[in-house]
Write a structure and sequence with these properties.
404 residues, alpha+beta, Butyryl-CoA Dehydrogenase, subunit A, domain 2, Butyryl-CoA Dehydrogenase, subunit A, domain 3, 15% strand, globular
C-alpha cells in the first residue's frame, strides 16, 4: 500500500533541493525574469553537482531517472520509493524557488525523459550526459499530438525530416532535440515516431525565441526542419508502423513526466501559500486549522480553502509518481494529478496576489511573478482540457474516437 509520508531515505535529497531553491534560485529569480533569454550561468555548477550525484547509466532529466533506473524496495510488502518519487519531491522543492530556472538547468530536459522511456541500451549510452529538448508541438498540432504533420521519410541509411516545431523548451541551449514526426500521415497515431536530432544539424533551423508571460528564464524556441537528415540509428523505438500499439511508446513519456509537471505546480503553489501566510501574519491575521473556517476572518477562511486544494494536488502527485516506481499503470492518475495541480496552481497564485493587495501586485515580492509563471503549468504537457478528456475516457472506458 502507498505510504504518502516522505520516505526517510529521501529526506536529505528534499533538504538539499529546498536549500537550492532558497539559496540559488530565489536570489537570481527576478534577475532572469527581467533579462529574458539570457542564459543563467549560475546553474552550470549546479548541473555539475547533479551529474556527480547520478550514476553512470542515468540520462538526467526530470523524468528520465524514473524510467530505467531500478527502484529501491522498502517495507514488508516490497513497496518501491524510487526515482520517480524522489524526483517529484525534489522538483516540488526546487519550484518553490523558480520554475523557469529549474527548466534551465543543463542536461535536465524533457527530451532526456523521452530518450529514457524508449531508447535501447546503445542509444542510452550514446546520448548519456547530453542535454535533450523535446519538439512535439506544431502550429497545426497543439493539444492533439497525433495530428503531427512533420514528416520523416527513409532515404537509405537516413531519415529526412521536414516540418515546423514550436514551443520547444530549452531548444536553443540543448545539445539534442527529440523531434516527433510521422512516417505516414494516412496511418494516424501508429506512424508517429521520435527522432534524436543534433542541435548542430544544418537542417534544423532556429526561427525565433518566444517572448513569454512567465518562466522567462527558460528559452522557448521555434524550429524549421528543412530536409533534415538523421541517421536511422537515431530513431527511438522500433522502425515499423505498428497499427495496434504504435503510439504507446511515445505516449509512455507523458505517464512519467506529467506527475513531474504536477510536482512543479505543487511546488509553486506551496511558495505562494508560504508567502501569503507570512503577509497575513504581518497583518495580524491568524490562520487556525482547528477552528471552522466560518468562525475565522474571510482572509483566513480563503487561505484554508486554498491549502486544502494544495493538499489534494500534493497527494495526487505523490500517488502518480509512486505508481510509476512500482510498475503500476498510471495514465489515469498522471492526468488527474496534472489537471488538479495545474488548475490549483493558477487559482491559488491569483488569489494570493489578491490577498497580498499592493504588495502582491508589485515587484518587491515574487508573488506577481509566480502568478505569471503559474499559467504555463496548466498548459504544457497537455492542457487542462486534454487532461480532463483523458480522465473521462479512462473512467468511461471509451476510445479517443468515441470521446473527443
Amino acid at each position: 500500500m502507498i505510504d504518502l509520508e516522505v520516505p526517510r531515505k529521501l529526506g536529505p535529497l528534499v533538504a538539499q533541493a529546498r536549500q537550492v531553491a532558497d539559496e540559488v534560485f530565489r536570489p537570481i529569480s527576478r534577475k532572469y525574469d527581467r533579462d529574458e533569454h539570457a542564459r543563467p550561468k549560475e546553474l552550470d555548477m549546479l548541473a555539475a553537482v547533479i551529474d556527480g550525484m547520478n550514476d553512470g547509466s542515468d540520462l538526467g532529466g526530470a523524468g528520465a531517472t524514473g524510467v530505467h533506473r531500478s527502484a529501491d524496495r522498502e517495507g514488508p510488502q516490497g513497496n518501491r520509493n524510487g526515482s520517480n518519487l524522489s524526483t517529484a519531491l525534489s522538483v516540488m522543492e526546487l519550484c518553490r524557488g523558480d520554475v523557469g530556472l529549474l527548466l534551465s538547468v543543463p542536461r535536465q530536459g524533457l527530451g532526456n525523459s523521452a530518450i529514457a522511456a524508449v531508447a535501447d541500451d546503445a542509444q542510452r549510452e550514446r546520448y548519456a550526459g547530453r542535454w535533450a529538448a523535446m519538439a512535439i508541438t506544431e502550429p497545426e498540432a497543439g493539444s492533439d499530438s497525433a495530428a503531427i504533420r512533420t514528416t520523416a521519410v527513409l532515404d537509405g541509411d537516413e531519415y529526412v525530416l521536414n516540418g515546423e516545431k514550436i514551443y520547444v523548451t530549452a531548444g536553443e541551449r540543448a545539445d539534442l532535440i527529440v523531434v516527433w514526426a510521422t512516417l505516414d500521415r494516412a496511418q494516424g497515431r501508429a506512424a508517429i515516431k521520435s527522432f534524436v536530432v543534433e542541435r548542430s544539424n544544418p537542417g534544423l533551423v532556429l526561427d525565433r525565441l518566444e517572448h513569454k508571460l512567465g518562466i522567462r528564464a527558460s528559452d522557448t524556441a521555434a524550429f524549421r526542419l528543412e530536409d533534415c537528415r538523421v541517421p536511422r540509428e537515431d530513431l527511438l523505438g522500433p522502425p515499423g508502423i505498428e497499427v495496434t500499439n504504435g503510439f504507446a511508446g511515445a505516449m509512455q513519456t507523458f505517464d512519467n513526466t506529467r506527475p513531474l509537471v504536477a510536482a512543479m505546480a505543487v511546488g509553486l503553489t506551496r511558495a505562494c501559500l508560504e508567502e501569503t501566510r507570512r503577509l497575513l501574519g504581518d497583518a495580524g491575521v491568524e490562520v487556525d486549522w482547528d477552528r471552522p473556517a466560518a468562525l475565522q476572518t474571510a482572509a483566513a477562511a480563503e487561505y484554508l480553502a486554498m491549502d486544502a486544494d494544495y493538499e489534494a494536488a500534493y497527494l495526487l502527485t505523490l500517488q502518480a509518481a509512486w505508481m510509476a516506481d512500482n510498475g503500476k499503470p498510471n495514465s489515469l492518475q498522471a492526468s488527474m494529478a496534472k489537471a488538479k495541480a495545474g488548475r490549483t496552481c493558477v487559482d491559488v497564485a491569483l488569489r494570493c496576489v489578491r490577498l497580498g493587495g499592493a504588495l502582491g501586485y508589485g515587484e518587491d515580492l515574487l508573488l506577481e511573478k509566480w502568478a505569471r509563471d503559474a499559467k504555463i503549468l496548466d498548459i504544457f504537457e497537455g492542457t487542462q482540457q486534454i487532461q480532463l478528456l483523458i480522465v473521462a475516457r479512462q473512467l468511461l472506458g471509451l476510445s479517443s474516437a468515441q470521446l473527443r
